[in-house]
């Protein structure tokens, strides 16, 4: 028997020993948690039986208090133990079938000559019975970084106590399934092809997978980066940006356990469906999910009461389909203009001017009557000390208005409608009034009819009730008419835009189309951030000070303005931005140059950039094919996994396209693929193709912007919604010149093609897109 065979026997014996130990511990823990759970139920049920309650005198009261405290402490101690055991159980469950995936043998420089420490890495740590020796190290432990960063030879790694140097004498990888070593091999720096081949060759899933066992060196740099205030990751399609981001969250939660919690981490995703796609990774690693949201959801939350906020996909659909609209060019120019930092400066200047004049206030109206006119409020506001900021002046104004309302309420009580309202009161209200007044001795002993004071009391009650809503709205500052203030920016001769764009006919056109939308109650997507920013500047910023880490996926899709805004909203947060400028498809994010220039967001020393060139998602053939579409694509390195060449199918006419697509779908079904996407350029096209395919290839699920769950199966999806997700096979429904030929469509086309893991097929009619010619 060869050496390696002997070693494998030893290794399997160790796996057996550990899985046996893990199982024993699981059984023991299950029994104990069951017992504790029972105890907790009993303590809760008998809590008051076991407490002697007696408040007769101070000594008895003290004793009662002490006995309650003792019971409460016992309960919380039991609950703590239960929580701890449940966590341990969940770690053991994760280690049960695959206790570890890697091993390193390490000699610490400090004790050279000694035998190497043998370190096994898994998705959780395991101590021996003495509690002193690690049988398995968590992949996030400081020493584990050596596994991802080095091959055999000299190594170093950071610990809280400083840098440790040493020598790695062995690096081994395992594929262990159900407690059996399927294969094991010794490697250098790169974590072996074999393991990656196995992982990447599998079918796609409804949920993203964790990549702990095969994290690559450059990905590890992202995961463990702790220095940068702003970490910018530019990575080719399929290079593992999202995967690395999620592993990074898990790493941070481990590294800062006790200090950092999952709710202090926020991930901005490209769409709600993507949220569902990535939501299983962290629980799989034994961590809680961070807060996940989309920028659109955030905007809705902030300004959704003022306007119907257009979403980025509707804007996208417009930019892809509305070329015949006479306002098309003006709208696109407006989108570009409003996404720049210069537009934020314009808002700043506007706010400065508003400090002097121009704020608009709504009158405070009650029962159709103006109680305090907008004009009066305005005069009061501008009568306040002008050196004070607008939000602080508004606060004074609120105090003044509330006082005024108290006085006005008294006048209101005398009005006739109040009498009518009193008459309609029920008996209970009367009885209550009588009781309260008796308590206050308001009824004079001599009068037999206390009508006046009773009426006074009831009138005050009626008016107070009706004024409640008014007072609440005043407290919220709802009398400031932010929509009107924003609209004023686009009115002819708005003071602030003088010298900015006032003479340009383009600006006038942009203003007109924006105003039209705003008057309809619709907030165009490109205006949503400027509006939210203006609102915050006037009312005072609602910052999220507890958030420590903000992750933005598909970061190339955000505008400069949006970044500046986010920076202000999350003042205590580090930013991790993950994107690919080759996939910037939105009109507001330009051609991705914003993503390039982001370094200016923070100080130079606080920003770090990492570029990922290696693409893992797709076969070599697909990566090479797709890379030809974009500039600089030759730098993208495919992972060496082979598959079929992408195919081009020319249909005789547009009408024949569905048949060609159906044919490809059947072929892929035969080949056993379970998730195939027909990717269309727009939602409009997706809907049409979906209807045409239904009779000849039923069962495809149409994905729309409202779709919130990502499920396994065959789908029809618009290109821009397929961002960030992947499929076994992709069929580009229409790769004709008519669909993809404008320069703005190049990146969209690239994004669509790079969603495929194993097979890519393109259908077209007439001329093929010039991007492939
Ligand atoms: N180190 C790795 N080990 C195993 N699989 C990996 C690794 N890195 C990436 N992958 C796989 O590659 C695929 C693409 O990863 P991911 O979606 O994170 O890439 P991305 O850079 O965010 O892509 P895109 O920009 O196209 O959305 C996923 O299936 C992921 O599991």
Detailed description of the structure:
This protein is of the alpha/beta class. It is built from 26 helices and 25 strands. 45% of the residues lie in helices and 17% in strands. A hairpin with a 2-residue loop joins strand 5 and strand 6 (162-177). Among the domains are: 1-94; 98-203, no CATH class; 364-476, no CATH class; 643-772, 3-Layer(aba) Sandwich (Rossmann fold). It binds adenosine-5'-triphosphate. Residues 196, 199-200, 209, 211, 214-216, 219, 235, 237-243, 580, 616-617, 724, 726, 754 line the site of adenosine-5'-triphosphate (ATP).
What is the name of the CATH superfamily of the domain at 643-772?
P-loop containing nucleotide triphosphate hydrolases
Spans where pLDDT lies below 50 across 5 or more residues: none
Instruction: Give me the Rg, rounded.
Output: 33 Å
Q: Describe the largest sheet.
A: 7 strands, mixed
Could you give the count of β-strands? 25
Distance between the termini: 57 Å
Which descriptor suits the 3D outline? globular
Residue share in β-strands: 15-25%
CATH structural fold name of the domain at 643-772: Rossmann fold
Mean pLDDT over the residues? 88
Structural class: alpha/beta
CATH class value of the domain at 643-772: Alpha Beta
Heteromolecules bound: adenosine-5'-triphosphate
CATH architectural category of the domain at 643-772: 3-Layer(aba) Sandwich
Helix run count = 26
Helix content: 40-55%
């Amino acid at each position: 028997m060869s050496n390696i065979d002997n070693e494998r026997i030893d290794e399997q014996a160790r796996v057996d020993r550990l899985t046996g130990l893990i199982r024993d511990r699981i059984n023991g823990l299950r029994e104990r948690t069951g017992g504790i759970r029972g105890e907790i139920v009993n303590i809760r049920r008998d809590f008051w039986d076991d407490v002697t309650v007696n408040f007769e005198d101070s000594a008895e009261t003290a004793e009662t208090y002490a006995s309650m405290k003792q019971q409460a402490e016992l309960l919380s101690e039991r609950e703590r133990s239960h929580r701890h055991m449940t966590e341990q159980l969940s770690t053991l469950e994760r280690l049960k079938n695959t206790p570890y995936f890697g091993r390193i043998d390490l000699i610490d420089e400090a004790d050279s000559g000694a035998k190497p420490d043998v370190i096994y890495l898994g998705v959780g740590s395991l101590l021996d019975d003495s509690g002193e020796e690690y049988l398995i190290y968590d992949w996030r432990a400081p020493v584990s970084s050596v596994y991802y960063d080095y091959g055999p030879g000299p190594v170093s790694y950071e610990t809280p106590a400083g840098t440790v140097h040493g020598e790695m004498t062995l690096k081994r990888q395992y594929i262990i399934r159900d407690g059996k070593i399927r294969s094991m091999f010794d490697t250098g720096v790169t974590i072996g092809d074999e393991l990656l081949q196995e992982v990447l060759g599998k079918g796609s899933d409804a949920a993203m997978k964790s990549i702990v066992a095969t994290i690559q060196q450059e990905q590890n740099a992202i995961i463990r980066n702790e220095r940068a205030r702003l970490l910018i990751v530019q990575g080719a399609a399929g290079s593992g940006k999202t995967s690395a981001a999620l592993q990074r969250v898990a790493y941070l939660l481990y590294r800062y356990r006790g200090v950092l919690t999952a709710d202090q981490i926020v991930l901005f995703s490209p769409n709600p469906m993507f949220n569902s796609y990535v939501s299983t990774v962290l629980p799989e690693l034994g961590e809680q999910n961070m807060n996940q949201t989309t920028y659109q959801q955030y905007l809705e939350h902030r300004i959704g009461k003022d306007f119907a906020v257009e979403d980025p996909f509707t804007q996208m659909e417009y930019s892809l389909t509305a070329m015949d609209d006479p306002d098309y060019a003006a709208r696109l120019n407006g989108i570009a203009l409003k996404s720049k930092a210069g537009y934020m400066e314009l808002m700043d200047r506007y706010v400065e001017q508003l400090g002097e004049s121009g704020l608009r206030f709504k009158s405070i109206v009650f029962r159709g009557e103006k109680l305090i006119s907008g004009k009066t409020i305005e005069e009061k506001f501008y009568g306040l000390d002008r050196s004070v900021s607008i939000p602080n002046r508004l606060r004074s104004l609120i105090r003044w208005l509330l006082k005024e309302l108290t006085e006005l309420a008294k006048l209101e009580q005398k009005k006739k409608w109040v009498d009518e309202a009193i008459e309609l009161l029920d008996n209970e209200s009367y009885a209550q009034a009588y009781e309260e007044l008796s308590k206050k001795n308001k009824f004079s002993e001599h009068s037999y009819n206390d009508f006046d004071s009773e009426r006074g009391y009831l009138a005050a009650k009626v008016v107070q009730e009706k004024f409640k809503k008014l007072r609440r709205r005043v407290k919220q500052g709802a009398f400031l008419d932010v929509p009107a203030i924003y609209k004023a920016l686009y009115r002819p001769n708005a003071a602030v835009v003088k010298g900015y764009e006032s003479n340009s006919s383009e600006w006038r056109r942009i203003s007109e189309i924006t105003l039209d939308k705003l008057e309809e109650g619709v907030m165009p997507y490109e205006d949503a951030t400027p509006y939210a920013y203006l609102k915050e500047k006037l009312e005072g910023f609602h910052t999220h000070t507890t958030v420590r880490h903000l992750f933005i996926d598909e970061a190339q899709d955000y505008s400069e303005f949006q970044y500046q805004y986010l920076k202000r909203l999350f003042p205590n947060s580090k930013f991790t931005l993950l994107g690919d400028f080759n996939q910037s498809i939105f009109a507001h994010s330009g051609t991705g140059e914003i993503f390039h220039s982001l370094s200016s967001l923070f100080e130079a020393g606080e920003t770090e950039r990492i570029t990922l060139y290696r693409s893992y998602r797709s076969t070599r053939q697909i990566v090479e094919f797709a890379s030809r579409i974009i500039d600089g694509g030759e730098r993208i390195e495919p992972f060496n996994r082979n598959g079929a060449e992408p195919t081009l199918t020319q249909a005789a006419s547009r009408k024949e396209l569905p048949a060609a697509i159906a044919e490809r779908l059947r072929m892929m079904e035969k080949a056993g693929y379970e998730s195939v996407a027909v990717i269309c350029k727009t939602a409009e096209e997706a809907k049409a193709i979906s209807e045409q395919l239904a009779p000849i290839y039923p069962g495809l699920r149409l994905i729309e912007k409202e779709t919130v769950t990502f499920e396994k199966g065959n789908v029809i999806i618009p290109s821009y919604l397929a961002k960030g997700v992947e499929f076994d096979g992709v069929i580009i429904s229409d790769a004709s010149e008519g669909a993809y030929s404008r320069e703005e469509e190049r990146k969209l086309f690239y994004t669509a093609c790079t969603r495929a893991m194993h097979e890519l097929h393109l259908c077209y009619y007439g001329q093929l897109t010039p991007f492939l010619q």
